[in-house]
Amino acid sequence: MPRRLPQNKRLISTLIPVLMMRGAHYKRAACQRLTLARESRCLSLICGIYPMPNPDLSPTAYLATLADKQLLLVKGPDASKFLQGQVTCDVKELTAPVTRIGAQCNPKGRILLSFRALQMDSETIALRIPASMLESAQKTLGKYIVFSKAKLHQGTDAFALFGLFGESAAAVASTFFTQLPTEQDGWVEHRGSYLIQLAADRFECWIALAERDHFLDAVTKQTQSMDAQAWQLLDIASGIADVYPESYELFTPQELNYQLINGINFRKGCYTGQEIVARLHYRGKLKRHMYRFEYTADKIPAPGTAVVNSLSGQQAGAVVMAARNQSGKIELLASLLDEQLDQASVADATEKLSPRNLPYAIPTADDAPIQ
């Protein structure tokens, strides 16, 4: 049976329909495809990320400037072929109007770069990455792209990135975009700009610089501002993690649960690090997963900060990403040994980590691997 984390008692009645879907007949494939649409509102309430609402806006919507994220464009006739041999997700799936989470690994299966990929046209694939990883990404991908008919281009001179969130986010998005995506991870294009649905009430907006002012004119009056930390809390609540300079080559894709969010395709062809990733999947029993926690501390831990057993002090894992929520507590994703889940604490912290819910089930060692 999948591992269950403690429920917030006040939300039990809200989550019952979701939990019923995760009963004894819960399939691993369903775990891969699990949508956040019915849960995103619950996640928002759990992590306390809603700012104080403006009574003049009903229902509410929030706009975040995603200055900590950037686009890296892979352009050329071999763009798709090149990436297919470098990353964990199946680039061929991008020909449909969907995006994919994925990673570039080193030969030992450790993540060099995490991203969300979108195919803009037959010769252009955009990778949305942490801004702090742009220089590193150009080096690690550039080392191999010289053998392909493709080139890397920074997207900073072409796109501005925003996040839309809230009950009326879809309605607000439709004031600029002429249509909306029809599924989670789907996207639509309008005048060179892209709208990506992360959940029923959450969207990424990749806006062409020439349309930036038009977009802001359309949405600003209908939204309240939301800072980047609040947006990061949504990523944490969604269980979708990125790798940063501090955690470069620290995690395997499975240690960030990428196999549970369509971030790894085990049936595609070879790519750098594929042998290790596949061996962990087919021959080994995964003993580490990424979990969501909450605790109280003065300082937000950086990615890569050690997570230890609160009793023995022995290292059990590492922080993946963290942010402070509205109640003043720190929410984080940490990758650690499954057996240490109930005794985990951030190094030098006085308080043990309290597990919180993720929108997908964490398999146990006895579960059959995802195909």
TrEMBL record:
Domain of life according to the entry: Bacteria
The Gene Ontology biological process terms listed for this entry are:
iron-sulfur cluster assembly
Q: Which Gene3D superfamilies match?
A: 2.40.30.160, 3.30.70.1630, Aminomethyltransferase beta-barrel domains
Recorded hits in InterPro entries, A to Z, give: YgfZ/GCV_T_CS, YgfZ/GcvT
Q: Which NCBIfam families match?
A: ygfZ_signature (TIGR03317)
Per its record, how is this protein called by name? Uncharacterized protein
Q: What organism is listed for this UniProt entry?
A: Cellvibrio mixtus
Instruction: Tell me the organism's taxonomic lineage.
Output: Bacteria, Pseudomonadati, Pseudomonadota, Gammaproteobacteria, Cellvibrionales
